[in-house]
Amino acid sequence: MKYEEMMQRLTEIADQLEQGKLSLEESAKLYAEGMELSTQCHKVLQEAVLAVEEIPVPLQGNED
Description:
Layout: H1 3-19, H2 24-53
């Protein structure tokens, strides 16, 4: 699942939980799914940061 899809699903889960119309069992299941998605999103973001940090930055001002 792509990052954007995970974030969309997290938004849907949060909306459902905030409505307060779910049973305890349904809420617990959605909460667990949301936590897993949150962990996956965090991992994707960490990997993206590391990838960006590895991009070499050309030095400017020393061109002859």
